[in-house]
TrEMBL record:
The chain crosses the membrane at residues 18-40, 175-196, 208-226. Residues 4-95 form the Polysaccharide chain length determinant N-terminal domain. This is Capsular biosynthesis protein. Keywords: Cell membrane, Membrane, Transmembrane, Transmembrane helix. It is a multi-pass membrane protein. InterPro entries: Bact_polysacc_biosynth/exp (IPR050445), GNVR (IPR032807), LPS_length_determ_N (IPR003856). Pfam families: GNVR, Wzz. Residues 149-195 form the Tyrosine-protein kinase G-rich domain. Its main location: membrane. It comes from Lysinibacillus contaminans. Belongs to the CpsC/CapA family. It is found in: Cell membrane.
Length: 242
């Protein structure tokens, strides 16, 4: 019985303050929409894949295995060299970028799957075309410089980044932002509604009086028609005045 009463109280509060809850939800959703579409800078991503292996194919099986294992060990070293200033400075010079190697390195992520000779060069930028240019130029510069740096020639560009007609930014996730903001607004509005109802100490029903005071109700006083009495007195005053 107590649970039913509490549930009824909750539903009553929600019904009574539904406009407040709705206002918070709509306000949060609209604010997130404006920020996501007109304030936050879209970030685009491009990816170029390079393959690390020995160029010679006319080798015996055991020698191929040894070369393959050596290539896998070199990948960690290559991952560091790719984002080193000696490579990135040439990328900046080639593309005439107005930034430092350190700032450019923050836009680049180098990944490779376990026991895989394929290295992914992932670049983010606020312009889709520039992300593609940096990604492909980085792979090209690395391919040209690695023979000079390590006296090996085992880099091949496997897949170049392509610029699509209508690129989709990876962030912000507009729909997700709006949904999260609306949920937060709904929660805040609901919490505020219950808080206002909790702080309202007025008696709202006869049952509340009985529960709080522990006394039975023996009678009710209806609303007195003061408005009608006031109109009658004003009317009689006009008659007297006339």
């Amino acid at each position: 019985m107590e649970t039913t009463i509490n549930l009824q109280d909750l539903l009553t509060t929600i019904r009574k303050r539904w406009f407040l809850i709705l206002s918070f939800t709509v306000f949060a959703g609209v604010t997130a929409t404006i920020i996501s579409y007109y304030v936050l800078t879209p970030i685009y991503q491009s990816e170029t894949q390079i393959l690390i292996n020995q160029k010679s194919t006319n080798i015996e099986q055991y020698q191929w295995v040894q070369n393959n294992e050596a290539d896998l060990r070199l990948i960690n070293t290559y991952n560091i060299i790719i984002t080193s200033p000696i490579i990135l400075s040439k990328v900046i010079e080639k593309l005439d970028l107005d930034q430092t190697p350190n700032s450019l390195a923050e836009q680049i992520t180098v990944t490779s799957a376990n026991n895989s000779q394929v290295v992914n060069l992932v670049v983010i930028d606020n312009e889709a075309s520039m992300a593609v240019k940096i990604s492909n130029t980085l792979a090209e510069v690395f391919q040209n410089e690695i023979p000079l740096l390590m006296n090996v020639d085992n880099i091949k560009i496997l897949s170049e980044a392509k610029l699509v007609d209508n690129p989709t930014p990876i962030k912000p996730n507009k729909l997700l932002n709006i949904t999260i903001a609306a949920v937060i607004g709904l929660m805040l509005g609901t919490i505020l509604a219950f808080l206002l109802d909790f702080l309202d100490t007025r008696f709202k029903s006869e049952q509340e009086v009985e529960e709080i005071l522990g006394l039975p109700i023996i009678g009710l006083v209806g609303a007195i028609g003061l408005e009608k009495e006031t109109k009658k007195s004003k009317k009689s005053d006009r008659v007297r005045g006339s």
